[in-house]
From TrEMBL:
All residue ranges annotated as the CCDC81 HU domain in the record: 11-89, 101-147
GO cellular component, one term: microtubule organizing center
Highest taxon of the lineage: Eukaryota
Protein's recorded name: CCD81 protein
A Pfam family annotated for this UniProt entry: HU-CCDC81_euk_2
Organism annotation: Piprites chloris (Wing-barred manakin)
InterPro entries: CCD81, CCDC81_HU_dom_2, HU-CCDC81
Length: 147
């Protein structure tokens, strides 16, 4: 599944038929739905794999006052090892604790939440990630923001 996000060149418009049909606000609605889904999973102590990497809550140690260290959970996005190697990306080595189950995006649930057809949701996510991969291929700076 991840292989399709390994690209040597940017993505041509012909590879993005769904994104061409959707308005920017519709694409944002789909991703807002995806981000709400991810948020719900994180609250239930699950990690979510989205094809190019995984969203997870990982324990980090925060110094609060002299000699006191507090363990807090921090939401992180961990780019997949294969993609890191393929694109030669420098990322912090973050490990998801073994006891945390990893789930995929549930396109059915996101579709119900956003009132889009399931196929539209899945294709919109897939084509956006292709775009992202194409930008990585040509070392373009990419910004993805999640609520």
């Amino acid at each position: 599944k991840m292989m399709k996000y390994m690209r040597h060149k940017p993505v041509g418009p012909g590879e993005l038929p769904t994104l061409k049909e959707l308005s920017t606000s519709e694409i944002c609605k789909v991703w807002s739905g995806a981000s709400r889904y991810i948020h719900r999973q994180l609250l239930q102590k699950r990690a979510v794999e989205i094809g190019v990497g995984t969203f997870a809550l990982v324990p980090v140690h925060a110094s609060v006052e002299e000699g006191k260290v507090l363990t807090v959970e921090r939401p992180v996005f961990i780019v997949s090892k294969l993609l890191r190697a393929f694109y030669n990306l420098e990322c912090d080595e973050t490990k998801i604790p073994d006891e945390i189950p990893v789930v995929q995006l549930d396109f059915e649930e996101i579709a119900a939440d956003t009132h889009f057809r399931r196929e539209i949701v899945e294709l919109c996510v897939h084509e956006t990630l292709l775009c992202f991969a194409g930008a990585l291929a040509v070392k373009k700076e990419v910004e993805f923001s999640f609520k």
